[in-house]
Amino acid sequence: MRITKLGVACTVALIATLFSGCATANTPDDLAFVSVQAVDWYDQDEMPGPAASPVLGMVNSSDLERSGQSLTGTVKPHRLLLKIEFTSATNLSQFAMEHLYNLGNTAFLCNRPDDRLTISFSYVFWRGVRLGLQEIDPIQRQDELSSGRITYYIFVNVADKERLQDKPPQAAFDLRRSPENICFYLRGGSESGLGYKSNVVLVPEDAIATALTRASMGSGG
User: What's the pTM value of the predicted model, to 2 decimals?
Assistant: First the structure.
């Protein structure tokens, strides 16, 4: 597959379609919260930095590299993030591959679902590997499948400033000053118009506050 600038632009244009298709019956609905930890973005090797390809996770990584798209982005800043672990009985990598779905997540403050906030990074990880459409399934060869539950994780922002120039404008939040429950779900879709949305997972504000307190005392990220 040869990716050109026009091809990347077309793929970006498809994002809204891929993430808003008609729901399919075969959807992961058993996601469960495990833990939350405060970490430094700079230290997370699997997380790309700013300016990574906007279609990372939607196009095969090898094709992106051949077209000159960045998989790593620019140098990552020192910035506090929350690493949220959750489990599912579904092999999400296999699920995405079988249905030609993108694999992403959306997070929001549970008590303010309609606020425009930049909280989550869209990537979903397993044991340091970013999962996604058209990537090799790393899970099927592991013993973890036999246990019935597979542990995944995502990263979310701890704070963000108000950005009125964005479309739509983004509101400010700071979980260090005011911890709140975070909710998230997995979502994605295909070019055929089908899509999925998992059950919503709640990350308790008490667990978030504890993780951030540990980080401020030097025992977290």
Answer: 0.81
